[in-house]
């Protein structure tokens, strides 16, 4: 990329922060533009022409437009194969992508209702039974991560930091910052501190914003 890429999406969005952290890890110049609730609307014709789903983030670079946060992170890592964020070897790569996909399809849906109810205080997410079910599901998914980290004693996919840890690290931050009862997961706690040694996580993860 000859010029800084543009990242459209407000910096408080967990999915935007995945891309921002990835850029920091890769040392990529970028311009972040605030779009989403509280900022420019993603439902304008201008934005919908970039992403018909009206969701952030959107990446714009010399090659064109790309949306879906995990796909953007993969794309950026593929542009810099020497970074190690996304392994080249098929098996190692599949393990990283497995945990990225798990974050998007299993972990994220578990906390949606509880997060909207407890943090965003959304009036449609205040049913006590549904809140309780979401919290139980969220902690159950976090226990899966705990078990994986007990096995690796390092990062999600093994010994080395990867894109899987960018997406999961932000989810761990959200879990820790949500006002709820947190089971004692020592491997997750150690993982959180391990990630906190990375400047990109301090900028876009462990900053007190779930």
Structure description:
This protein has 210 residues and is an alpha+beta fold. 54% of the residues lie in helices and 8% in strands. It is built from 8 helices and 4 strands, in the order βαβαββαααααα. It has helices spanning 14-26, 45-48, 69-79, 90-118, 128-152, 163-177, 186-195, 199-204; strands spanning 5-8, 30-33, 58-61, 64-67. The chain has a 4-stranded mixed sheet with strand order 2-1-3-4, with helices on one face. The longest helix has 29 residues, at 90-118. It is globular, with a radius of gyration of 17 Å.
Distance between the termini: 31 Å
Number-wise, the strands total 4
Instruction: Give the H and E element order.
Output: EHEHEEHHHHHH
Average predicted confidence as pLDDT:
95
Portion of residues in beta strands equals 5-15%
Shape: globular
Instruction: State the helix count.
Output: 8
- Range of helix content: 40-55%
Low-confidence stretches: none
Q: Biggest sheet, open or closed, and with what strands and sense? A: 4 strands, mixed
Give me the secondary-structure category: alpha+beta
C-alpha-based Rg, rounded: 17 Å
Sheet with most strands: strand arrangement: 2-1-3-4
């Amino acid at each position: 990329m000859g010029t800084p890429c543009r990242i459209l999406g407000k910096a408080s969005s967990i999915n935007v922060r995945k891309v921002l952290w990835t850029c920091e890890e890769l040392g990529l110049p970028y311009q972040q533009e605030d779009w989403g609730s509280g900022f420019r609307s993603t439902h304008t014709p201008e934005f919908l022409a970039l992403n018909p789903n009206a969701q952030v983030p959107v990446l714009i670079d010399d090659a064109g437009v790309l949306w879906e946060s995990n796909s953007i992170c993969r794309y950026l890592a593929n542009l810099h194969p020497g970074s190690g964020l996304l392994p080249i070897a098929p098996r190692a790569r599949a393990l990283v992508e497995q945990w990225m996909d798990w974050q998007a399809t299993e972990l994220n849906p578990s906390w949606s209702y509880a997060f909207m109810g407890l943090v965003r205080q959304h009036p449609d997410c205040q049913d006590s039974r549904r809140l309780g079910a979401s919290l139980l599901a969220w902690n159950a998914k976090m226990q899966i991560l705990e078990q994986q980290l007990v096995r690796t004693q390092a990062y999600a996919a093994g010994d080395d930091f990867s894109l899987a840890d960018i997406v999961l690290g932000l989810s761990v931050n959200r879990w820790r910052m949500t006002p709820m009862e947190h089971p004692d997961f020592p491997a997750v706690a150690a993982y959180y501190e391990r990630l906190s040694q990375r400047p990109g996580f301090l900028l876009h993860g462990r900053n007190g914003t779930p």
